[in-house]
Amino acid sequence: xxxxDFWRRRKERGDLLQRERRLxxxxxxxxxxxxxxxxxxxxxxVVSLLPPVGQEVFRRFTVAxxxxxxxxxxxxxxxxxxxxxxxxxxxxxxxPASDLEAGKPLPxxxxxxxPELLNTPLEELDPFYQSQKTFLVLGKGNLxxxxxxxxxxxxxxxxxxxxxxxxxVLTHSFFSLVVMVTILxxxxxxxxxxxxxxxxxLDYMFTAVxxxxxxxxxxxxxxxxxRFTFLRDNWNLLDILVVILAYLxxxxxxxxxxxxxxxxxVLKLLPLIPGVKTTVRALVQSLRCLAGVMAMTGICLxxxxxxxxxLFMGSLKQKCVMWPVNMTLEYTPDNYGxxxxxxxxxxxxxxxxxxxxxxxxxxxxxxxxxxxxEGFTCLKGGKNPNYGYTSYDSFGSSLLSxxxxxxxxxxxxxxxxxxxxxxxxxxxxxxxxxxxGCFCLLSLIVVRVAVVISKQEKAAVAEARQKxxxxxxxxxxxxxxxxxxxxxxxxxxxxxxxEKEKSNExxxxxxxxxxxxxxxxxxxxxxxxxxxxxxxxxxxxxxxxQRLYALIMNPYFELIIxxxxxxxxxxxxxxxxxxxxxxxxxxSISEQVFTFIFLAEMVxxxxxxxxxxxxxxxxxxxxxxxxxxxxxxLMLDVTPRSLLLMRVFRLARWWPSFHxxxxxxxxxxxxxxxxxxxxxxxVFAFTVAGMQLFQKDYKDCVCRIAADCELPRWHMNDFxxxxxxVFRVLIGEWIETxxxxxxxxxxxxxxxxFMMVVVIGNLLVLHLFLTLLLSSCSxxxxxxxxxxxxxxxxxxxxxxxxAFWSLLGKKKPDDSAADSEDCNRKEYLALDVVTSDxxxxxxxxxxxxxxxxxxxxxxxxxxxxIENELKTPENENEQVKRSNDVQKRSEAQQDxxxxxxxxxxxxxxxxxxxxxxxxxxxxxxxxGTGRVWSNIRRACLSIVQHRVFETFMVLxxxxxxxxxxxxxxxxxxxxxxxxxxxxxxxxxxxVFLLEMLLKWSAFGLRRYFTNAWCLLDFLILDVSLMCLTAxxxxxxxxxxxxxxxxxxxxxxxxxxxxxxxxxxxTLVRTLPSxxxxxxxxxxxxxxxxxxxxxxFAGKFFYCFNETSxxxxxxxxxxxxxxxxFLINANFTEVRWKNLLLNYDxxxxxxxxxxxxVSGDRMDIMYSAVDSKELESQPSYEFNLYMYLYFIFFIISxxxxxxxxxxxxVDTLLRExxxxxxxxATEDQLKYCKAVKNRLCRKPxxxxxxxxxxxxxxxxxxxxxxxxxxxxxxxxCLSVVVMMVETDKQSEQKDDILYWFSFTFFILFLIxxxxxxxxxxxxxxxxxxxxxxxxxxxxxxxGMFIMDLVEKYFVSPALFNVLRLARIARIxxxxxxxxxxxxxxxxxxxxxxxxxxxxxxxxxxxxxxFSFSIFGMFNFAYVKKEYAIDDxxxxxxxxxxxxxxxxxxxxxxxxxxxxxxxxxxxxCDPYMENPGLMVTGNCGNTxxxxxxxxSYGILSFLLLVxxxxxxxxxxxxxxxxxxxxxxxxxxxxxxxxxxxxSQCIQYSELSDFCSALQDPLRIPKPNTIKLIxxxxxxxxxxxxxxxxxxLALTTEVLGESADMDDLKTRMEEKFEGNSSKVSxxxxxxxxxxxxxxxxxxxxxxxxxxxxxxxxEAEEAAGRSMGDDNGGSGV
Length: 1673
Known about the structure:
Elements: H1 3-8, H2 10-18, H3 25-33, H4 35-40, H5 45-49, H6 63-85, E1 121-122, E2 134-138, E3 144-148, H7 161-171, H8 173-191, H9 202-221, H10 235-251, H11 259-267, H12 269-272, H13 276-289, H14 291-312, E4 318-322, H15 341-345, E5 376-380, H16 395-406, H17 411-422, H18 427-481, H19 484-510, H20 523-533, H21 539-552, H22 555-573, H23 581-614, H24 618-636, H25 656-671, H26 673-700, H27 719-730, H28 735-745, H29 747-774, H30 792-807, H31 815-831, H32 840-859, H33 861-870, H34 873-898, H35 912-917, H36 928-944, H37 947-964, H38 975-1003, H39 1005-1009, H40 1012-1033, H41 1036-1043, H42 1058-1096, E6 1101-1105, E7 1110-1111, H43 1120-1128, E8 1134-1138, H44 1146-1158, H45 1162-1170, H46 1187-1216, H47 1226-1239, H48 1253-1262, H49 1265-1283, H50 1291-1319, H51 1327-1344, H52 1346-1352, H53 1356-1367, H54 1381-1391, H55 1394-1418, H56 1437-1449, H57 1454-1460, H58 1485-1514, H59 1523-1536, E9 1543-1545, H60 1549-1555, H61 1567-1572, E10 1576-1577, E11 1582-1584, H62 1585-1597, H63 1601-1613, E12 1627-1628, H64 1629-1672
Antiparallel strand pairs: 1-2, 2-3, 4-5, 6-7, 6-8, 9-11, 10-12
Helix pairs in contact: 7-9, 8-9, 9-10, 10-11, 11-26, 14-16, 14-18, 14-53, 18-29, 18-58, 21-23, 22-23, 22-30, 23-24, 26-27, 26-29, 28-29, 29-46, 31-32, 31-34, 36-38, 37-38, 38-40, 40-41, 42-44, 42-46, 42-55, 48-50, 49-50, 50-51, 51-53, 55-56, 55-58, 62-63
């Protein structure tokens, strides 16, 4: 099943899983007591689980039950041994019923047991366990508990009173409640940092409860002898661990090991919460399925870490060091006066530090590396950055850096450090190796988790479908068993009841009341409701109620309420800082007005509907709560005003998309509550563990990470801060806190703790996200919400539109028809093709018919809209498919016309109306000027349609884009280059102008300006023409404003590459559906933005000393007044500043939230936490719990992002329904499939064994599996040797590693010699052998020539090349892929998504290129602050590209936006730049925000499509049989069929099927299974390979559509094979077995008959002899 098929069936799965199945007591009685009903059910599973008729379902467990179990156990044991001796398949052996497993509720067809039988031992209901020495107990909620019937502790039988009492206690819900309350109380005390002394005595009580729990479980279940004993349940190991550690801690100081006691107590909550145990079991199964992908991730990360280690080892120690002018005695350790460089380089005071940086400035000695300031030299010395943990000096540190890059945590800092030290050219290492590799790994992990989730849901759906089938069978059987009189009586009673209900509903409808007839309440409630909640008074009151009911049901009433809500939101959103008193008064009055409006609405609805009817509607209840809160805010002025923001949620009543979001969140929380509980419990456990492990270390060693010896913001000294760190790790920020932890507590414990949180936590979050995405908990279509809804609001708007058009004296046009006509007009006008034999009049008539056709369709729009609501999904898919076919034909026409158009007659130049208005434009093409003009247009059409012209224009576009690269700030200093670029720009503009004129002439103005691609070219050309015109006439300001728009020039390539066109068309078509989702997204963010304004407006200001660049403490300056006093006291260096990102208004709040969700959240969070009162100086963590605001916002964004991706997938599903690919062209897909078939083609004929005896023995050696295993071990050891290399290692270690490497080289050389002798010229026919040979050569060059290069060459780049040459041997690990079938299969599936990935990445690169040019044009002169410095800036194209690439791969773009947002006096608009004509270093705030926001949104959207593209190809990976599996089958077949006859003997079939690999393998014993496959037998008792393959595939796939595909492939493979056996089968395996059995029976009967006749003859002979003897006597 493909991803879209799985997505499309969400609603069906959701309905099936949520359906409730129950039988009434009478039905249960008939089912259990009527033999005819059970006979009607046949031999189904339900009948096998039901007790015999007349026997009680629930029977107490007695002594007789024990005897019956013993007798059944002996009988079934003998039967089982017989079946196993017959080689019966394992799956055919009896198995327990899945519905009756322990921990599950009792199936519906058993009914509810009597209350006296709860928590009491009962006889088994499952036939499988009836002979397994077990019994069951039913607890609360009919939950099944299963126990062994053997004696516990060899003393306590199931009927022992002590054990029975223990069972009653264990299965009682109160016992679980007591244990849970104990654990929760224990968890509460775990959260307390400084516990009171009396609380430690409670630990003994907790230990006593845990010990009592273990004792009760052991007494009731036994210890270990039996399937359901205490130790057989893995969850009970937690209980043992808790008790043992509790007693050990009383006598032994466990140290950090005591954390296990805390964590195990927290994890005890998991099995106590109903349903969580099943969720944990599913999570563990999913982790098992991830083992292969995780192993591949570890191997790939290790390889990348080795590459980084070899490239950048020691480079991050290169710092700017002050050159020693005076050789002081401080660095002359001996009397000889020698200068100690090591001591000098390890002194931090000799390094250059930038302000506010804790680490020294890095540098490099290459031409593109970072340079040092004057007076400093780049030397290698000191520690690595970030406490010495950021480096590539060892394999461990390099691997940590790669994990950091993979998780995108602070990776922009790592890239900046690496590029500054090693050079900008090493950006290719990140762009071409690291980030694509990490994306591949992450995408495969995502896909694998999604596949596991889909499998689990499919299993749940299959079980639910089976239950639904059984339930329907039971209902049908019960209906058939009913007699006719009873059926008539039931029908009559139902009719009477229905008439009564109908009359009641009619009465309630007249009063506006909707009542649920199935609601069961006490009679007192109905009396109270009739008297107090139903207001039926005099006639005047009834008349008033009817008038008010008509009022509130009027569409205009709801329209007014919606407008009031929108106005209320607007008034809340315009609140800002600072506000005038008059403005605040207006807001206060508006709040009162809206409160009274909504109060009046509530009163009107209450009077019209009565309280009984009013509170039946959920939205009315919500409205009443909001009104109550509003009145409390208005009267008491104590309730927080932020609660009034809940009014925004009222919009969901009339906004379907917003309603769907709320419904999605609520249904997701309900459906996935167990998974969310697991995540919360694990977060709590990690928090407790972190606080227990590192609390003392942070307190004692804080001076290592803080200069003032005060705890930093992120520490683990208390529960809340530890929780913040765990939450920060879960959202992807872990490396900085890991550095602090390793500095205060050591590396080993911190690495283990943080890696567990990173891996387990992120996998859980990913599992939760994908479960939300793929689950059927909310399966409503999100794309359909973009259409118009026929609610009262829509009716009111339509009536207003009609009234407006009637006032104008016109008839209101149909919107749908107008939209359709407009869209189709554009489509047809842009895509019409005129053939050579079709005159203009016919084309015009055709267009008229098309418009008439759309008019007819528009007249049918209302009926079609009603029909669409009644259509099934299949009909909708057919309709979408037909529409997509039309679109595909139109696109084909466009492509044909744009490319190789066979016709040579151009279209009309203008539209039909132009010819009617200006008849002189219609020239006669048969003579005169018209004929000349027609010939010119034909010539132009031939030119623009020629491939050479298209190739030439692509080349010009590439050259013009490349010319933009040189227009940086250094261009003015190179006059020749400046003149060349100006000339080239003029030439390119002229060429593009000529192209436009040619296309005008060839296509005509009408078609040119209705084609989106041509229109894009026209707009870009206009920009170039405007720039040239402005320069020509001296309007430099206008030219500078428009000049940056030339960065759009590379976008002209979009229309020239078919893959990009397909991708852009898909994105454009999905854009309208995404707008609705974006509006919902922005609405939720509006809530948090308004809340942020209410909480933090005007509170991010601070008093700052610009000279010392220090903040004043709140004790020094408390508020703005004191800061202004200092300023007025001539302290010119003091300023009252505001944070660039703040919540002073809603717009700035949006920007702050965008930075919070993108990752640049620390400055905002710190300011919020430090904020005090309005215009007060911030104080350190004064408002600590403001972290919760950001935590709730990030959690809400988690759900909103999931909702947004669902919208994207729904939209793509609509596009995919037409059967075309949405990301790649058909040619790309065909090419990719051809490459895949080429790479994994059918293996060639095996290499023959040499005739020479010596070569033959070597051949057997090198082709044996043991030899391959040995070489793989050698490869792994060589990799391990590379891993142990470090930066500063001793000479002895160098020698040891050198001889190890030399040994491996000798082994690889010996392998090469042996293989070349044994395989001869066939050695180079294998790609693996070619790879080994190349690696061997490079290995030789790296070992023996590198020393010469180091002596005679000094180029650092050459050193890097030689290091890369050493890395080449790592590729030999690729041999391992041959033994990892699942990984290879996953990689092949991933390869099929490469065309889509290539197109998306190419579009992302094109966008990045354009934005880099735009940034270079606009932000090259901004002030160097934050992340912008002399190395990372927008001054050149390369620097701009690096900045944007770091923004794409990470979230650090606040450092780039900050300097652009600077305004005077923080920047100087009149500062002169030496050698340049531009003055000032201020940026454009609005332009910068739009620039980075648009780039971030586009990058994120394309990244989402990247993951979806991978998901589409790899989602159905395990559901089909790959080509590799088929080739594996052929490879094994050749061993049994060396002559390639395509047949083997039937006697060899068992060995062949056992020699296969999974999934086709059938291990021995397999004789019975192979017989039941019913394979056809050919003459000579032979089996054909195709028959075997199809039979084995049927075992794997079952009867599905994939079988047809496989048969087609088989026909293709054997189509041209002349040696294919064409004999017809003479028998089959099953028929042969039947014949053998029949022959055996006949032989036995014949022998028996022959023996009988022989005995009869012998008896007759003896009797005759006796007679003769008697007569003789």
